[in-house]
User: Fold Phytanoyl-CoA dioxygenase family protein from Dyella flava.
Amino acid sequence: MEQGFAVVPQALDTAHCERALSAIDAFKREHQAAVTPNADEFGHLYRVVNTHLAIDSVADAFVESRKALAVADRYFGRSTSLYTTLYYERGSEQSLHRDTPYFCTKPADQYLGMWLALDDVDAENGPLRVVPGSHQLPPVDVEALARELFPDQEKIPKISDAAFSRYQAEVQRLSDAHGLVAQEVHVRRGDVIIWHPSMFHGGAPHLAKHRPRRSLVMHVTPQGVPVYQIDVFFQPSKPVPERASWRYYRHHDRKIAKFDQIDFGHQYVMPVRRLRWPF
Assistant:
């Protein structure tokens, strides 16, 4: 709550990390046609959405990250459930941004990012960058931005690269005006980085391209909290349901949102039922 992020050392033990990685390797061998278009020249996957729905050992990594879940439970004041995940085998190299335009909850701020390192991460293989204190910057007038970006307020789309970029530019302006500076977070396998919904963060350059930087980003909320996108984020007063439309399933002692597709780098999708492993 003070810095906007926390590092939980050894939130997941090495044995669980190894089990998850072994299962992912087996998944890649079993489904080469699915994963090959997503892989780079070193065979590293990029931004695969919801691998945990096809690979139970990845879902286990969420459930068994108990030290990190204790932090999230305390933040929410209730049990943490898993909404979606992103699996990376190389650095995201994303520019600094807030997640809130695409993870807009009702009520607000009922979302956390949890970043699990499945490899040691240093300056060479794409560490996470955070801007401490950026979650406490003055609020951005998103409704004014919406009027600037969308002449027809009834037709604000759920997804808009232009709106996302314009909002992040305003956060960057505020961050610079308040003298805030980004820093890299170097971690060891099994560590988890948790960040506040309004934390300004991104990915540093992945310099040693041959080295993997395997990680699992877990987007977590309390069960039943809906997550909206650009159309709701830029219209805070828009009436929307305050209960999620998706169902959940129980995985050990935690709840996980149930979806039917796995997305590969936002380029193509495949149904979960075709990618379940082992069969």
Observations:
- The first strand starts at residue 5 and ends at 8.
- The chain has one domain: 5-275.
- The helical segments are 14-30, 32-35, 56-64, 66-76, 142-149, 161-177, 230-233, 272-275.
- The chain has a mean pLDDT of 97.
